[in-house]
């Protein structure tokens, strides 16, 4: 508190904001009371005077109150008005007659859709069967989503700019969707933190009219900045080839929309995406170059620093105004100002000042991934590099500093990396050590020079750009080669907050004790001069001289190794615990994942075996889209829903994947699964479908050498001692034709169906089997299967072509699960099927209304929970 008051205040502000966001109502005040009672004890342990303890407590309280104040303001005026007349049968939609306002974000075009934000001036809503109602929601922001109908409309949309006045007619006002799976991405919460509560969906650009702004304002200036960034992007495209152009746009001006998906995938797998996020290193390098040029031109030091300060806001604007850029910009401006005044003391305090300023201006930055990574990595470098560098004294000076910074950045960012991305490559450290200096220094500096020269004279810029392209190709090749090394990618569940806090405490203790035991470095015992260790920047010490500690006693020589051993053991134990899957051992689980109109079920046996039954899939209709309609990264349920959920739950590998049949809505998402997660076996019905999806899936399985097995009626598989799978269908085996796997178009009749018994609880999985297949199963297996059925996975999403009366009378399931898409165009589940299930008294669970459905098997009983409902047991 004495040496770094801003840092202590910042930590308390973050703690207060986090507490207020995590607890509400009475639970928050109970937590606040507990913190209040602990303040005197913490003050005594930290030897803080009561006044300073009081300041920190007041900071914590003010931060919590400030968060709640902002939450109270972050409500929609539209929601309250619409609730008065909205049709209860359609709780999320209302027809909009017209809306007018100002475009406050750069319109983003992706395929046949354009998104932009509007600050409303007026809104007229027409409820069903009522007169239009004017809603006074002035200054509220909504997100407009315009579906373009032809290429002419696409060309028209290029004229929509930030700062333009806009008038919208027709369309539908829709609330953003919340997460439908446990741990899934919550779009509603994401937009809430962006102060957006409604989407305005329009078909056709004819319903959008724009006009030039009537007056000069901040939004108009930002619109001009968008046009300047677009001009820079065009110049970069002229300087570099397609693949390099997308990469250099991300590197130089923070535009990542055109990045090659394969390159981005390689960088993402190796933890290198931070290279493409404009950060402190980009700002520092550009300021250093500018300062060097100014001094080379004999500009005085004071004027050079002032020029650099004025350059920073401009650089922040043209690189996207993201949290990491703002953080580095604020820190750089504060640092340069203090340096110019001769008052530069401690970079950790400057970092804290930047964080406080940003959180006061926008409290929701606290949950921004870019903000969190930027501050935690920067703070880690400031605090921990002096600890790590002496431990690497066997390396040459410059290599030692680079290795220290790379190691610290990896260690500090690790918890956030696995929390948000649920994966960590063991090659990440090597990749960052080798590739980051090349890209972050050489490509960035030379690319900046090529861009500046290209703005003056394009041929000269291309001359500089050519060697940059060669360097980038080597970088892409190196990243691709590393990414192809199998066995180095690890999958982690999202850790809890307490795990992250304990991790950082143990890392600091381990480094501190290791440095003490090495008897070198700035905090070493018997050190007499800072010259004996590696010279570090003054701000890392806060301009304080390294401590000179007394000689080590013989007792300390015994205690210190013991302390080290305990801390290392605790850290390793924590990592082992964090690597364990989310599902507890000894408890079986069946998770019916909501993949929209499709099927996907994850089975976790009591002894930890993982079986995935189908993987959902995006179904497209009609003719192939024209090229202009294609999105840069089309939505694919496997990559966007299934794989992220499997990783978040700590599924390191799948012991088996069951393809019930080859329909797109069952196998479309499995391509992403096979690409991302190790699979031990693939179980199929013995046939293929004539589709690109099926072809690619089979090719991937062969390339990855995944064993493929044909199931047969009567076959039994025992994944562990407490789980048995008995395959019932297809009853008639699918035979090979001339030694080749047959192609069968209609797959529903030959869907795999199997009975699973887990700790005495029985589940029946049916794929899309039809009534004829149901009759075949009951005729063959009727005399052999006795006893109750606990859960029936209803076939074909509740279609009337399956689940006959005879089928239900035979099984009499106590509960039934129907996987269907919300408001699907097929009308699934069919009312007739729901009536049949009601007649036999089967409890119906539906993903279209309940979201993901999870059933845990505990001691022969089922405990069921729904994502969009509560917890219930039976």
Describe this structure in words.
It is a single chain. The chain is α+β, with helices and mostly antiparallel strands. It has 28 helices and 27 strands. A hairpin with a 2-residue loop joins strand 20 (753-758) and strand 21 (761-765). The longest helix is centred in the middle third of the chain and has 29 residues, at 428-456. Mean pLDDT is 87; it is low at 520-549.
Derived from helix and strand composition plus strand pairing, the structural class reads alpha+beta
Number of helices: 28
Cα-based radius of gyration, to the nearest Å: 30 Å
Side by side, the strands of the main sheet go 17-16-15-14-13-12-25-26-27
Would you identify the regions where 5 or more consecutive residues have pLDDT less than 50?
A: 520-549
The helix fraction, in percent, is 40-55%
Task: Summarize the topology.
Elements: H1 5-22, H2 26-45, H3 50-73, H4 77-82, E1 93-103, E2 108-110, E3 113-125, E4 133-135, E5 141-147, H5 151-157, E6 165-169, E7 172-174, H6 187-192, E8 196-203, E9 208-211, H7 218-239, H8 242-253, H9 261-269, H10 280-296, H11 301-318, H12 323-341, H13 347-361, H14 369-391, H15 397-421, E10 423-425, H16 428-456, H17 458-484, E11 489-491, H18 497-518, H19 538-541, H20 554-579, E12 588-592, E13 601-604, E14 610-613, H21 637-648, E15 656-658, H22 664-667, H23 670-676, E16 682-684, H24 692-703, E17 708-710, E18 716-720, E19 723-729, E20 753-758, E21 761-765, H25 771-781, E22 791-793, H26 805-811, E23 815-818, H27 831-839, E24 843-846, H28 847-850, E25 853-858, E26 861-866, E27 871-873
Parallel strand pairs: 5-8, 14-15, 15-16, 16-17, 21-22, 22-23, 23-24
Antiparallel strand pairs: 1-3, 1-6, 1-7, 2-3, 3-4, 3-5, 6-9, 7-8, 10-11, 12-13, 12-25, 13-14, 18-19, 19-20, 20-21, 25-26, 26-27
């Amino acid at each position: 508190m004495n040496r770094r008051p801003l840092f202590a205040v910042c930590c308390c502000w973050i703690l207060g904001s986090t507490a207020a966001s995590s607890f509400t109502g009475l639970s928050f005040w109970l937590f606040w009371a507990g913190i209040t009672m602990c303040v005197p004890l913490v003050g005594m342990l930290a030897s803080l005077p009561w006044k300073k303890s009081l300041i920190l407590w007041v900071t914590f309280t003010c931060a919590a109150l400030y968060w709640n104040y902002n939450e109270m303001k972050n409500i929609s005026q539209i929601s309250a008005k619409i609730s008065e007349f909205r049709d209860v049968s359609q709780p999320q939609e209302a027809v909009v007659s017209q809306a007018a306002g100002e475009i406050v974000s750069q319109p983003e075009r992706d395929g046949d859709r354009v998104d932009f934000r509007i600050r409303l001036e007026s809104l007229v809503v027409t409820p069903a069967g009522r007169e239009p109602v004017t809603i006074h929601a002035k200054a509220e922001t909504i997100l407009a989503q315009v579906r373009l109908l032809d290429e002419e409309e696409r060309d028209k949309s290029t004229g929509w700019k930030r700062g333009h006045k806009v008038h919208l007619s027709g369309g539908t006002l829709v609330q953003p969707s919340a997460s439908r799976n446990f741990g899934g991405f919550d779009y509603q919460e994401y937009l809430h933190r962006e102060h957006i509560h409604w989407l305005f969906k329009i078909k056709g650009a004819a319903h959008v009219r724009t006009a030039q702004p009537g007056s000069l304002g901040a939004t108009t200036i930002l619109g001009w900045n968008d046009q300047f960034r677009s001009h820079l992007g065009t110049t970069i495209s002229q300087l570099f080839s397609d693949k390099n152009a997308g990469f250099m746009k991300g590197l130089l001006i923070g535009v990542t929309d055109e990045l090659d998906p394969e390159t981005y995938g390689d960088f993402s797998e190796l933890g290198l995406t931070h290279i493409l996020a404009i950060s402190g290193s980009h700002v520092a390098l550009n300021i250093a170059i500018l300062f060097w040029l100014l001094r080379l031109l004999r500009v005085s030091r004071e004027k050079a620093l002032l020029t650099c300060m004025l350059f920073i806001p401009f650089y922040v604007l043209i690189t996207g105004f993201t949290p990491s850029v703002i953080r580095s910009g604020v820190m750089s401006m504060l640092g340069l100002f203090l340096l110019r005044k001769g008052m530069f003391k401690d970079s950790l305090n400057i970092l804290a000042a930047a964080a406080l300023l940003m959180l006061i201006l926008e409290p929701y930055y606290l949950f921004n991934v870019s903000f969190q990574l930027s501050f935690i990595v920067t703070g880690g470098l400031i605090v921990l590099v002096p600890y790590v560098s002496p431990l690497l004294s066997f390396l040459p000076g410059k290599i030692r500093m680079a290795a220290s910074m790379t190691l610290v950045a990896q260690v500090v960012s690790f918890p956030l990396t696995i929390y948000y991305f649920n994966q960590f490559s063991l090659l990440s450290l090597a990749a960052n050590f080798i590739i980051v200096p090349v890209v972050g220094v050489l490509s960035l500096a030379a690319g900046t020079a090529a861009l500046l020269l290209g703005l003056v004279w394009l041929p000269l810029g291309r001359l500089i750009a050519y060697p940059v392209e060669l360097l980038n190709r080597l970088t892409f090749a190196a990243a691709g080669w590393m990414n192809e090394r199998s066995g180095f990618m690890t999958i982690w569940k999202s850790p809890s907050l307490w795990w992250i806090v304990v991790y950082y405490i143990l890392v600091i203790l381990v480094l501190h004790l290791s440095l003490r035991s090495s008897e070198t470095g700035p905090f070493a015992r018997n050190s007499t001069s800072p010259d004996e260790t590696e010279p570090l920047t003054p701000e890392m010490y806060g301009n304080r001289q390294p401590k000179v500690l007394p000689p080590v006693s013989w007792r300390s020589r015994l205690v210190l190794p013991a302390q080290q051993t305990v801390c290392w053991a605790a850290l390793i134990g924590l990592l082992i615990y964090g690597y364990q899957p989310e599902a507890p051992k000894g408890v079986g689980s069946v998770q019916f994942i909501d993949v929209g109109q499709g099927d996907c079920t994850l089975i976790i046996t009591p002894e930890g075996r993982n079986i995935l039954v189908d993987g959902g899939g995006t179904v497209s209709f009609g003719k192939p889209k024209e090229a202009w309609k294609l999105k840069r990264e089309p939505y694919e349920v496997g990559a966007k829903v299934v794989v992220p959920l499997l990783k978040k739950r700590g599924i390191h590998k799948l012991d088996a994947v069951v393809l019930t049949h080859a329909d797109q809505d069952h196998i479309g998402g499995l391509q992403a699964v096979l690409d991302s997660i190790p699979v031990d076996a693939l179980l199929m019905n013995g046939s293929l479908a004539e589709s690109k999806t099926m072809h690619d899936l089979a090719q991937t399985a062969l390339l990855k050498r995944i064993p493929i097995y044909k199931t047969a009626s009567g076959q039994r598989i025992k994944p562990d001692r407490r789980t048995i799978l008995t395959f019932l269908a297809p009853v008639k085996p699918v035979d090979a034709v001339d030694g080749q796997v047959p192609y069968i178009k209609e797959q529903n009749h030959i869907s795999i169906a199997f009975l699973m018994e887990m700790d005495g609880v029985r589940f029946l999985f049916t794929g899309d089997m039809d009534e004829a297949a149901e009759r075949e199963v009951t005729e063959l297996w009727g005399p052999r299967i006795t006893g109750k059925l606990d859960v029936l996975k209803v076939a074909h999403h509740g279609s009337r072509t399956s689940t006959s009366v005879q089928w239900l009378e035979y099984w009499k399931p106590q509960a039934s699960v129907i996987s269907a898409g919300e408001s699907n165009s097929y009308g699934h589940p069919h009312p007739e099927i729901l009536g049949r299930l009601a007649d036999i008294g089967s409890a119906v669970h539906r993903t279209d209304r309940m979201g993901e459905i999870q059933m845990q098997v505990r001691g022969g009983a089922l405990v069921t929970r729904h994502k969009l409902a509560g917890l219930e047991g039976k």
